[in-house]
Amino acid sequence: MSVHRYTEPDPGRAAIACAHHILARLEExxxxxxxxxxxxxxxxSPKLIFVQLAQSDFDWSxxxxxxxxxxxxxxxxxxxxxxxxxxxxIASSGIPRRNVHRVYxxxxxxxxxxxxxxxxxxxxxxxxxxxPSFDLIHLGMxxxxxTASLFPGEPLVEDRDRITAAVYIRKMAQWRxxxxxxxxxxxxxxxxxxxxxxxxxxTRAVFESEFNPLELxxxxxxxxxxxxxxxxxxxxxxxxx
Length: 241
Description:
The protein is α/β, with parallel strands linked by helices. Helix content is about 35%, strand content about 20%. The protein has helices at about 10-30, 45-55, 80-95, 110-125, 180-185, 200-210, 220-225; strands at about 5-10, 35-40, 65, 70, 135-140, 165-170, 175-180, 190-195, 230-235. A hairpin with a 4-residue loop joins strand 6 (about 165-170) and strand 7.
């Protein structure tokens, strides 16, 4: 397991530490390449990080931005991960719109997933049977142990071939498009931001229970990914040994 765990007293300070780590990894990527590739997650917690990123003096002109997952709603719907990132980060960071690669949720879920995979292949200049290696992927974790839109019991957790997929989340009665485990595992660096007391038991299970990603998908980055940095607050880390 190649993971470094960082605990801060509260979510705000965990977000600041996480944002600093993200910027450092992107600077490293740009030191050796013309562009950097960065995939972000949605939900409510990342807002704290995105505000920090937007306020930095980082030059975003060479960063290409992608989404780890997206809800199949219109792009400016209140549930849209794109909308949240646009309002808290993209619009004020100066990142060129041509570098922003959102999921086209106006399409049918299966076609949106296919189109997203096509866009990724074009930016990474890879063949249909290749997997992209992002410079940095940002993940979250739900209290149930899901990450990206890979939920407990979802067969896609065991798929190591596809880049993207459409997935129906039954308990939310909602279609989503998600990056697949093959992409999560191919990233050069991964950062997980998972604060909150509601995640304490799951955090303990992810790190200390028997490895079973079908039950706890968040074990994929925790146990198998490269260069993982896991940021949490004291409440989330309360049950760790």
